[in-house]
Amino acid sequence: MHGFVSKEGGVRPKRLAVLLVALAVMAGVVWLVVQRAGSAPPPGTLFGNVEIRQVDLAFNTEGRVVSMARREGEAVRLGEVVAELDDETYRSLRDLAVARRDAARANLGLLLAGTRIEQLDQARASVATAQANLAHAEAVFARQEELVRRDVSSRQAYDDARMALDAGRAQLDHAKAVLAEAVAGPRAGEIEAARATLRESEAAVALAAEALSRTRLKAPADGVVMTRVIEPGTVVLPSAPVYSMAISGEVWVRAFVPEPLLGRAAPGREVQVRTDGGRVYAGRVGYLSPVAEFTPKTVETPELRTQLVYRLRIRITAPDDGLRQGMPVTISLGGE
Asked: Are strands 252-258 and 54-58 parallel, antiparallel or unpaired?
């Protein structure tokens, strides 16, 4: 009979198709499980990042920038001058402070040396002159006194002679006082005041020299310029960023270790650090935090994010350019 279809013939292909799909799904699940098992990190593996060691360079004074020696990506050495300000004003202030210091030093030297012989001789000569003037005034007054008694001279002449005698006596007293001061020399208080003035002027010189040195910006460490913030001609204020640089030299890796692995992360323990590119570096645990904290979100393992962990810092023994700041790395703590 044409047009008749067997029920068994139509059901068997459908069952076969369902069976094949089920087998394919099971095979995929098995493959996924195997892949995940194979990609799971071995025990004692941590994930971290190379620490970012960055510093912003700025002048500690104000002025107009006249030179910027470095650009982005260029290496700098410790103590290298990377920028300069116009220092004309600061040099003038330094020179002024030096001149005042020299004057104060010279004044103290004069006081410590005492009175010169020439000054003593001049003071003695003044005393002798005053004595001669007084002797003359006494003789004139004696004659005028006798003439007045005999009513031969006027009263005005007598008064003039008396005034000349008093002036001569005062002049002699002053000359003697000047001579005594010259013989005694400077007082102790004057010398101490001069010394204080010298110390003050020396401090002013030091401050002026420090202000002048601040017109030159030096690199605080070896590193690489990341950002050149300004250009020559800019007027900057103190603490305004001029460069941003990454510090080179020592390389540290920061990671977080759970409590079960604390025994493998003791300070001084040697570990291996591997980059995603496959390079392996030797390291040594330098610091293990004594305080627990929640795992930060930067850790790439979701299972650990809710656990309490301890901050770990690892110093790379022989770093090179293959380790970049902020780079993710994998740390192997090794066995017990």
From this structure: unpaired
User: Does 170 share its domain with 268?
Assistant: no
**What are the φ/ψ torsions at residue 90 (nearest 5 degrees)?**
-70, -35
Which structural domain, as residue segments, surrounds residue 103?
92-210
What is the dihedral sign for C-alpha 209, 55, 247, 230?
Answer: negative
122 with 230, same domain: the answer is no
Whether residues 119 and 62 fall in one domain: no
Residue 199 and residue 163 share a domain: yes
Q: Which residues contact 206 (CB under 8 A, 6 or more apart)?
A: none
Kindly state whether residues 141 and 188 are assigned to the same domain.
yes
> Rounded to two decimals, what is the model's pTM?
0.61
Give the tens place of pLDDT for each residue, 97-111: 999 999 999 999 988
Using an 8 Å Cβ cutoff, are 269 and 284 in contact?
yes
DSSP structural state of residue 305? T
The secondary structure of 66-103 as a DSSP string is EEE---TT-EE-TT-EEEEE--HHHHHHHHHHHHHHHH
N-to-C CA span, the chain: 81
Q: Are the CB atoms for 79 and 216 separated by under 8 Å?
A: no
